[in-house]
TrEMBL record:
Subcellular location field: Endoplasmic reticulum membrane; Microsome membrane
Catalytic activity: 1-(4-methoxyphenyl)-N-methyl-N-[(3-methyloxetan-3-yl)methyl]methanamine + H2O = 2-{[(4-methoxybenzyl)(methyl)amino]methyl}-2-methylpropane-1,3-diol; cis-stilbene oxide + H2O = (1R,2R)-hydrobenzoin
Membrane topology note: Single-pass membrane protein
Presence of keyword Transmembrane: yes
Primary residence: endoplasmic reticulum
Swiss-Prot/TrEMBL keywords: Aromatic hydrocarbons catabolism, Endoplasmic reticulum, Hydrolase, Membrane, Transmembrane, Transmembrane helix
InterPro entries assigned: AB_hydrolase_fold, Epox_hydrolase-like, Epoxide_hydro_N, Epoxide_hydrolase
Identification of the protein by name: Epoxide hydrolase
Any single Pfam family the record assigns to this protein: EHN
């Protein structure tokens, strides 16, 4: 039987797509990735020559100020909660339907007033070696964990990059575990991103993830590491990716827990085929159970709509919400903890678990991160990173870096956790990261995996290192 006219048209269209697709793949594979970046300065006084730049590395201790804690507790105890609460059938709605759960935030308030001990946290943090060094006009803070007894041996240098709303605290457990591992000699570097924690905030515009990549490469160079591995999630994954693109000769390996790939028409075609025809067009067998629920475009749009508001706000008007958050510790805690809850659970878990899904962490872990933002007064500068990223995209500047692939010489590990906020299938991720050495799908864990699952995280790093 001859093909009907419609079938013939469909066949021709598919053929044309296949040819364009094939041609594009060939073309992309041949394009040599070579990226450059403008040298920018973010401090107050632009130096006239490199002579008056300060390259020294100064030891640093985390400061503790009693008056800061007193002021915070005072503000917390005076929190003005919204009344009346919503009732359904004369019962309080305890879910997170309208935003972060009220019972949980009251529990957080009581804990901050009666139990939480920032002084003890600072003392514990100061058992680590902290330093500051000036790069691009800003003092950059970092923790360094090294086997002091083996300082001259060959070391495996690893840079850990945190994201938002997180901090260098996120990697301390992993660093402790790796440091006590007997097989390898590590030099672990855990910085605070510019505008986060104890790193200076930029005084000039333009501190986007690509510029942070340049600062971090400078940091590693200054510490004597011309070759190193980068680990990161969230912004840390974006910054690490830019580092691998800009400095493929230095980045010996990149391990990320969140892979955001600029989606092209080719990817939409793949996603549509994967969704409407057969998942195996898009997903390898091991990914299917794990990822398939993400590829209902409608569900994904719903997630973006429900969970993406903060992104829009911070990418357009970070300072406005910043006034409120920098003035109210409970407001700040609710804003930050909602993210830790949402991004570590799936939606069903949150309303069913006690403490809105925060029980994946200890309250001390969670509140140390919040109080770090509070005492350093950095929530506004941290949120501006979204603004700078959005400016970078809309200006088209560094477009090549944002959309282009890594050099095939850089080995990459992609570690997917079940409750991570973004997923991309391996076939799509490969277009950006051509040399994936390790692809893991964990059935538990979320966005802050290094803190939620430090053992698993450290084990994956060691697995990756064996393949480099
Ligand atoms: C809401 O929480 C309060 C206090 O924890 C509790 O007494 C009440 O039963 C809860 N209501 C619902 C609908 O879960
Ligand atoms: C790292 O290991 C060295 C050598 O065992 C030890 O002296 C140091 O205290 C450890 N650092 C941390 C932060 O655990």
């Amino acid at each position: 039987m001859a093909l009907s006219r419609l079938n013939r048209i469909i066949a021709v269209v598919v053929l044309i797509f296949a040819i364009i697709y094939g041609w594009k793949c060939l073309f992309e594979a041949r394009r040599p990735p070579c990226y450059t970046i403008d040298v920018k300065y973010f401090g107050s006084n632009i130096p006239t020559s490199s002579d008056n730049e300060d390259f020294s590395i100064k030891p640093f201790k985390i400061p503790f100020e009693r008056s800061q804690v007193d002021d915070m507790v005072n503000r917390v105890s005076k929190t003005r909660f919204y009344e009346p609460q919503i009732l359904i059938d004369n019962n309080l709605v305890n879910k997170s339907t309208y935003g972060f759960n009220r019972q949980t935030i009251e529990m957080v308030r009581d804990y901050l007033i009666n139990t939480y001990d920032w002084k003890k946290t600072v003392q514990e943090l100061n058992t680590f070696d902290h330093y500051k060094t000036n790069i691009a006009g800003l003092d950059i803070h970092f923790v360094r964990v090294t086997h002091s007894s083996r300082i001259n041996e060959n070391k495996e240098a690893i840079l850990f990059l945190h994201g938002w709303p997180s901090s260098f605290l996120e990697y301390l457990d992993v660093a402790r575990l790796l440091n006590s591992s007997s097989n390898t000699n590590y030099d672990l570097i855990i910085p605070s991103l510019p505008g986060y924690g104890y790193s200076d905030a930029p005084l000039r515009p333009g501190m986007n993830p690509t510029q942070i990549a340049r600062i971090m490469q400078n940091l590693m160079q200054r510490l004597g590491h011309s070759s190193y591995v980068v680990c990161g999630g969230d912004w840390g994954a974006a910054i690490g990716t830019s580092m691998a693109q800009l400095y493929p000769g230095h980045v010996r390996g990149l391990l990320i827990t969140m892979s955001a790939v600029a989606t092209t028409w080719k990817h939409y075609l793949q996603l549509a085929l994967g969704h409407y025809v057969n998942p195996s067009i898009l997903l390898d067998y091991d990914e299917q159970e794990f990822l398939v629920r993400r590829f209902n475009a409608f569900d994904f749009a719903k997630i973006l709509w429900r969970e993406g508001g903060y992104f829009h706000l911070q990418a357009t008007k970070p300072d406005t919400i910043g006034y409120a958050l920098n003035d109210s510790p409970i407001g700040l805690a609710a804003y930050i903890l909602e993210k830790w809850s949402r991004w570590s659970n799936n939606e069903i878990d949150i309303d069913q678990s006690i403490n809105s899904g925060l029980d994946r962490f200890t309250l001390d872990q969670l509140l140390s991160n919040v109080v770090l933002y509070w005492t350093t007064g950095t929530i506004t500068s941290s949120m501006r990173l979204y603004f700078e990223y959005a400016s970078q995209i809309s200006s088209g500047h560094d477009d090549k870096i944002l959309k282009g692939p890594l050099a095939a010489s850089v080995p990459v590990a992609i570690v997917n956790y079940r409750n991570e906020i973004l997923y991309a299938p391996r076939t799509i991720v490969r277009s950006k990261y051509p040399n994936i050495k390790l692809w893991l799908c964990h059935t538990t864990g979320g966005h802050f995996a290094s803190m939620e699952k430090p053992r698993e995280y450290a084990r994956d790093i060691e697995k990756f290192l064996l393949q480099l």
